[in-house]
């Protein structure tokens, strides 16, 4: 017995140590690097193209690595997306994530990861909230998207999208005698863009508002006919697109008479033709943003992809990783706990040389370099016009006397001479109007000076007047429908007592309490809001521990299970419409963040709207309640509130989750389909009734008009309020007094709680019975009852038991001619029949280990001298079954088993805490096992 315990302790210790073996091996010189990339013949970073370069880099570093005791090996794993609707990097269901997850579960994740290049795949690996949390360096030649910015373990060896966005921000505000101040720009989002172009243009679209204060308008073009229409107006414009010179040629061939004064800015980073080839006539009015000419190779354009910038970057990633690990070996690693600290300390702010030239990584592990802005001179040669250092963010003019095709010594602006004269007239007229209006405004200012000064004043509520509530005083308030969300602290608000009232403290994360004049005016306007269907705003309070918030009424929202009849639903919608109608008529004018979690209920069962105001402090957000026009261009409007009301009304009517649709369940996909609708229809949630009544049809028509794609066709809240009042009147609910209405709501809520308690009790009993049934299937009945009552099971000695062992003869040979799934099916078929035979005898099945089957009789329930007879009868039944059994995948091949039976004393007890097992110990067990192993096949 002592030997068995010692052996069990040793095995447990070895299993725990093996969990850390792989990570510890990273610091003793044995290094495994996994390469996970797309496996296709289209992507320039396909694993078939990258593999030779990586192996070449490993071989080139092997000699110097061996000196420092570093042994580097590489494991290549490709993944395919041919079975998905979207192929390549466009697929969000990235199999590379599953591959890495399986490697991690097997302890083979290695010390570093090369790849993936796709942004979607990389994000699911490096994001700290939803990622795999691998705590090891991830080196990618790609992952361009802004969702992968500032990730702890990620190092990107090609310029990410934020570097391109930084170039445009600094280039647009740069001013000299060559570059004009463009006021208008067109951003062309080509269909089926490459991975790099998709994220580069996407980043520009997201940050387009930051190009320059001088940029008055930027237009996003998504269709070819939109681009052709703008190019055909022969006006001076600036067009930004990403692609190759072939895209420019195709564009110009499809559009006749393009004015040379139209300037194209082409983003083409991974193309070396600008340094070793002549330009064409189509590129004469094109500026090209590309990488510097530091390559020690020529890009293969034949289609074989023997060398390109992606391949070179993964080659150089091996050099970087080898350099880092050699440095760790040389300097020692007593302060390094895991590969996470290696990512944070050795892949940031470093430089090294590779076949792509000099690499400089910034503090976030992203590559910095000097971009070149190239133009075509009059001799059809490419020349560098500007350079941009992404590290210092400086724009430098390189060609002070450029040989442009334009007659002037500068790039053309986006205004014609006629337009300029017209603009001069308009400016002069506007100046005169402004002067007159300024005089009138000055007079008005002095007349209202006192009032404006009062509006500017604002003082915080003293933190001493805010008394935090004790835990037992809290009312549980959930702002989410799901039960799981109730445990999430982000959905609970801080509560306190102020002026003898229980209030909510809501944090303002975007301010330190120093309000601007415009913000103070809005806060004063919020103080004046006092309406039955709006929560009351009391003021702001600033605490010493860096928490700043505003104080609101305490309210409770309806959970999903609340029973709501038709009258109740209309009443809730009517309360929301009344509150929004009042809010739109007030000085606040717009809610901006209207959603179902902001529609709460007070202790008098009246619906109130919360979280309005603070539009000068908080930024617009994108959510399922946000209207399509605001998803495309973040802002707020009254018509946007009407759309949000429609989504809330659909939730109330259908009693489903937000924006429920049977066609789509993914939140991100819903937002995308609303933001970019198809040409035939607009995506909206389901709103269908079986045999709807007249009033239900009216409400459905109202909701559909409120979420119309055209904001001008949506009704205002005054009209919505009137429509709902008419529906309420038709149901004779307007005749109820306030008390009758309140009593009816409370009775309805009480009935719902009773039904809910009964339902939850029944669910609890069903789950308890199911758990008991499962326990009795895993352990003997007396053992289960002992565990439930005392939590422990005392081991017991049985004087007379009979133990049965059997295994399959030639099981290894059968496995050799079978697939793993066929082996599982074979054992399942055999053991299911064995189990059914056991039900006819007084025996207990102990366990199955592979092809071994162990049964005992005489325990845990003693049966006198019948144990031997029961085991023997069971063994004969099993032999009879095996004589008729046929393998489904190997028909005609007989299956034999060996059986060993022995009687005697043994000990039995539960071993282990997690996944406990009822085990037998003693010489009787060993003798029965030996009799089975030396027996004849039957």
From TrEMBL:
It is a single-pass type I membrane protein. It is an enzyme of class 4 (lyase). It is found in: Cell membrane; Endoplasmic reticulum membrane. Keywords: Cell membrane, cGMP biosynthesis, Coiled coil, Endoplasmic reticulum, Glycoprotein, GTP-binding, Lyase, Membrane, Nucleotide-binding, Receptor, Signal, Transmembrane, Transmembrane helix. It holds the Pfam family Guanylate_cyc. GO terms for molecular function: adenylate cyclase activity; ATP binding; GTP binding; guanylate cyclase activity; peptide receptor activity; protein kinase activity. Residues 802-932 form the Guanylate cyclase domain. InterPro entries: A/G_cyclase (IPR001054), A/G_cyclase_CS (IPR018297), Cyclic_nucleotide_synthase (IPR050401), Kinase-like_dom_sf (IPR011009), Nucleotide_cyclase (IPR029787), Peripla_BP_I (IPR028082), Prot_kinase_dom (IPR000719), Ser-Thr/Tyr_kinase_cat_dom (IPR001245). It comes from the Eukaryota. It catalyses: GTP = 3',5'-cyclic GMP + diphosphate. GO terms for biological process: intracellular signal transduction; receptor guanylyl cyclase signaling pathway. Residues 1-18 form the signal peptide. SMART domains: CYCc. PROSITE patterns: GUANYLATE_CYCLASE_1, GUANYLATE_CYCLASE_2, PROTEIN_KINASE_DOM. The keyword rRNA processing does not apply. Residues 431-724 form the Protein kinase domain. Residues 732-759 form a coiled coil. Its EC number is 4.6.1.2. The chain crosses the membrane at residues 422-446. One of its GO terms (cellular component) is endoplasmic reticulum membrane. Belongs to the adenylyl cyclase class-4/guanylyl cyclase family. PANTHER family: GUANYLYL CYCLASE, GUANYLYL CYCLASE C. This is Guanylate cyclase. It comes from Danionella cerebrum.
